[in-house]
Write a structure and sequence with these properties.
279 residues, alpha/beta, 10 strands, disordered N terminus
Amino acid sequence: MSDYITSDSHPSPTTTGEHPISTTAERHAVTAIPGAAPGRDWVIVTRGLRRDYDMGGEVVRALRGVDVAIRRNEYVAIMGPSGSGKSTLMNLIGCLDTPTAGEYWLGGVLVSKMSDDELARVRNKEIGFVFQTFNLLPRATALHNVELPLVYAGVSSSERKRRAAEALDSVGLGDRMTHKPNELSGGQRQRVAIARALVNNPSILLADEPTGNLDSTTSEEIMKVFQSLADHGQTVIMVTHEADIAAHARRVVVLRDGLVSSDDRRSAFAAKVGTESAH
């Protein structure tokens, strides 16, 4: 398939401090018409997204019809307790799985009907993953760890080094490029993983429990990195079960029993759950 998301779908820098957030009415309008291609300003649109699993003859309905719309440059947390469907939704948004029913549009392209090979190409080009475990090569420097996706993409050595250095600079590790993982703190290792996710200039930075292995002080450090990236135009989607971590995002989508339970701006979410809004 040739109609992949083109380069104009990637984030462009915005004025630091701008907080673009779609309105409830806008989100309802874009998810209301099945089959209609959303405008390219919408990086993610799901309509009636369902995912069923056959568990030994019993059907588990992990997602029961999820409508979500995320505009380019938004910073959104997806939150919910265990069994809420948040991990399933993350897998679908990350093109790691396909839905049982419903639509998933990424950058104006319907990806929910793609083949596995097509999904892999979209996933490698459009989505930068950050996981709870850092998944760094222990004997490689920070620079080489960040270069790896570009090696697989066939980028030249000089260009790889330039882009990897820029990515490390963007997360505040310009002075740690030659350090190996065992010479870095937990927060620094997670920042290397974030730089690696950014090096391909993805449409979406998708973070799954990114502070799960970090203490509270280091978690705040990583949240500041995400905030800075969002301030400069990166679309950030963070999956978490922790309300205080979710409250750093500008918008919080809460899942419960496979459905969207609420979708609020940060201040409204913080007031509901009793956390202090991060900004």
